[in-house]
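[Solved] Which block belongs to which protein?

Original post:
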Amino acid sequence: MPARKPPAVKKAAIGATLARPIVARATRAPEPVGPETLVEIFSRLRAADPEPRAELEFLNPYTLLVAVVLSAQATDVGVNRATGPLFAVADNPEAMLALGEEQVRGFIRTIGLFNTKAKNVVALSRILVEQHGGAVPRSQAELQVLPGVGAKTASVVLNVAFGEPRIAVDTHIFRVANRIPLVVAATTDKVQAGLEALVPEPFRLKAHHWLILFGRYVCKARKPDCPRCPIADLCRYPDKTV
């Protein structure tokens, strides 16, 4: 028995559905603030916290590098809890190599992805000893070839340890930059490039700290604390809280 054909009315309905264009609805982001507003924003952030500091605890460029590698997908508080005892016995790459992967793993067991991170810490320590005389290199390219080190980690080390005006972009800074907005961009790399090009020179060295602390404690992800925000009148975010 031949298969029945669908009624003509159904054919028409299906055809009409497929013929309709699929339109993505998206809210257009506000235009980024202008140069004068940018200066005022960072002037206020500086006035509120003249000497911002990294919340990761470290002793030298090497321990900073290790702490930032360990901080991926982990909180600063959790990393500090683990690295305090670790750095007390290994604050240089030679000492870390002497500990070995198994002992390093024991120190950082409370941190997420500790198996991979222990392997990376020992591997990068070996490279520093064998290729850099135990010193942390001061170039983005040399840092990024180390195991567990990406563009963000390298930028943090260059900024915090060596005083280079880099603005490493994490989730907090990415959100803040697009929300105010300082820069509207779809990737962290593009946000970093935009911020480093736009942030006025007097603020560039500490901009990373101001923005990350602002995003962590005021311009929070789920519910920004707009009533106590020092730049609420300058921010163009359309969904401010009251």
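(Second protein starts here: sequence line, then its structure tokens.)
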Amino acid sequence: MTAGGRPLVLVGAGGLAREVLAVVRRHGPYEAVGVLDDDPAARGGELGGVPVLGGLPALAALPDAAVLACVGHGRVRAGLVTRLAAAGVGPDRWATVVHPSVEVPDGCTVGAGSVLLAGVVLTADVRVGRHVVLMPHVTLTHDDEVRDAATLAAGATLGGGVRVGPRAYLGMRSAVRERVRVGAGATLGMGAVLLTDLPDGETWAGVPARPLHRAVDGHVHGARDPGTRDERAVRA
């Protein structure tokens, strides 16, 4: 177990924060000193042995600590980053956590505030933006770009030259064909195979992935093609 390092405050008392804690406790380079969460019920408790200090105002007592937004949903994470910046968190305070199993080759870049968990693969000239979350065993191949606050769930794979827009979400074991674009705020369902561009803000699922519509009963179903069955969208 690694001890010491720059103090680190995690924002969001959920599963992602616990996964980050597991990495930094064993490998550093940070030492988690507190968790912030707006939920009054969490205040005064612990997350993995680290105290929950309260909401964002509690950060004022830790002016030298690095900060990491640990909220899984990209849109919420982006909003949280905006709130933290307004509260005075400057660019030099964002922590970046990269599991030691992850190689970042020359020509690849990882933005501040991002989390890359075990088994993530970056090949050549991959650009990962700020506050991105790459869950275990995500594969990014040559010339891929993942924009700010996007989330790629475990096992997601991108062909070469893919563009993933800000705040997009790619479900577990989804795959994207080379040179395809995933729009800003778009969602690709678990296990989906994306062969064509996914427009901003839309949700697609299936093999091959297709746009979804909301049925009268309130359930989300796949668009029907002649001779095929509807497919239910599933988010990881």
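Accepted answer:
You had them paired correctly. Confirming on the second one: Confidence is low (pLDDT under 50) at residues 215-221, 223-236.
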